[in-house]
Design brief:
The protein is globular. The longest helix is centred in the last third of the chain and has 36 residues. It contains 9 helices and no strands. The two termini are 32 Å apart. The protein is an all-alpha fold.
Amino acid sequence: IQPDRNSVRPEELKAYDRVVGRQTFYGYSKGTPGYDFRPKGQEAGPYFGVLLNAPLVADHLSELGVYYRTRGEFPGSFSHADREWVDIVLGEHLGFNMWGHILDGVAVGVRPEAVYAVLEHREGDLTEDERQMAQYIRRLADGALEASDWDFVQTKYGTRGAVEYSAWIAHLITTIRLIQAFLANHSDSNEVLAARLRKFITDGEQLPDPKARVPKMEYEEPGAR
């Protein structure tokens, strides 16, 4: 549970406020597609709410997450779709799928058919690029990378982009493992999520705004200078 602001050490209030501000900026507190409504005092949500018991840890992880979220806005790194592909592949691989990120992924260009292929273990239905990227993600998570894997991402993104992409995968591994430690060890099953996505698309429900969770590097109140 997100600790009350009045309980936070004075020297850590700035870090606490930054995390709450970023999470509010993303629109989570409004109950956007894929995410539950967050009441006042719980704006940071279940994961960052727990992390805010250590505000400096929460702030640094949150700010690093902002950096990865913005890479798709710059040349020489990975796209927003590539970023969300990591969420989808790694969530399935580590046993904690995140429904919100499945929707975010589709909203930024991940093929729904690719999502189904991952959830239903139909690797043959992935494109060659999707398959190679999924392989890199899983092998990094398992500590089983080969030289050819690094060659692939370095060719695809350049050296800096390959470093950022690999660091993003490692960051998300940390995130998922902490969620499993703090909140729950298992999410909805692959079968449930695949069926839910098919129904969501068939019903024509609104996907998230593709730019809704692409923030500035440091959160500022609207109009603040």
